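Title: Comparing notes on inverse folding

I've been comparing how different people in this forum approach sequence design from structure. To keep things fair, I'm posting one structure and asking everyone to reply with a full sequence. Here's the target:
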């Protein structure tokens, strides 16, 4: 399966402000002493060697991750990132009214469904969009977002065939070529993690979860569910200090993610659902601290830690 990240922020979109872009440019120019600016290769080498927070940006869109198989198109959450994904999908079968899209919703807080009214494939006759969720009244929750009080176009007037599937607590459900299972996370209003498997490989999406009780007994259910996955997308919205100060808000930290990933024998830990008030430099700082923490406690175990950013792609 191929994974691509279209939205990695939590709570609300956080577009990079103009002053931050200008600051990146200033810092890059100040550091270019000795670089032959007339040499394209030299300039490219210089830029590629800049720290992450200077040369690029994490992105400001909210949660949306694409999982593509050989003949199954799956999307995890419909945050604001789904708008751009929808435009990309219109280049393929969706643009011909022949698209089949499966959308899994972790929960219906606004940052996870706000992009759906702008999902272009849902406006093309012939496309089929199937929305799955564990929460009750999943269709009504989407209808509420399309109510005239909130949005000018009703769900019913979307020309595509938009369907809803109420998932229950069955161990697994087959969606196209994937086996999908879910587990409840601690989050206000409830959230669910999804484990997507194919040919013995697993990808786990676990956003919007708080791990208040870190005892082994309490953590066993999560460690078992995440176990041996190729990649774990983990809610690391807060620093450890902010997570402690905002207990009950339903989010976690990268340090907890490392602890769980090492226990569960995860190959790649992907830090996700970034706090909207954290700029790129702050996220780089969090990443560096996380790696240092991992190096301190790894004990010979191996884990790749990745900061999720828009456009990140990987094969599972």
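Reply #1:
Here's my take.
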């Amino acid at each position: 399966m191929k994974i691509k990240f279209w939205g990695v922020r939590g709570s609300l979109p956080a577009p990079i402000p103009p002053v931050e872009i200008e600051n990146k440019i200033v810092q890059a120019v100040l550091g270019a002493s000795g670089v032959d600016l007339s040499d394209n290769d030299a300039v490219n080498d210089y830029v590629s060697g800049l720290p992450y927070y200077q040369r690029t940006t994490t992105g400001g869109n909210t949660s949306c991750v694409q999982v593509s198989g050989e003949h199954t198109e799956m999307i995890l959450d419909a945050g604001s990132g789904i708008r751009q994904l929808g435009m990309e999908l219109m280049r393929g079968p969706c643009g011909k009214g022949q698209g089949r899209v499966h959308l899994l919703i972790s929960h219906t807080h606004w940052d996870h469904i706000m992009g759906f009214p702008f999902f272009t494939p849902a406006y093309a006759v012939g496309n089929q969009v199937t929305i799955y969720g564990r929460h009750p009244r999943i269709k009504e929750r989407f209808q509420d977002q399309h109510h005239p009080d909130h949005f000018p176009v009703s769900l019913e007037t979307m020309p595509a065939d938009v369907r809803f599937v109420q998932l229950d607590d069955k161990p697994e459900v087959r969606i196209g070529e994937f086996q999908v299972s879910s587990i409840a996370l601690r989050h206000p209003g409830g959230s669910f993690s999804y484990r997507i498997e194919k040919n013995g490989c697993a990808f786990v999406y676990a956003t919007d979860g708080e791990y208040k009780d870190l005892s082994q007994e309490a953590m066993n259910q999560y460690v078992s569910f995440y176990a041996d996955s190729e990649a774990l997308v983990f809610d690391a919205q807060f620093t450890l200090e902010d997570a402690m100060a905002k207990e009950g808000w339903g989010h976690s930290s990268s340090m907890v993610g490392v602890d769980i990933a090492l226990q569960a024998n995860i190959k790649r830990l992907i830090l996700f659902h970034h706090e909207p008030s954290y700029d790129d430099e702050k996220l780089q700082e969090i990443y560096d601290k996380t790696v240092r923490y991992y190096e301190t406690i790894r004990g010979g175990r191996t884990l790749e830690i990745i900061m999720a950013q828009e456009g990140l792609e990987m094969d599972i």
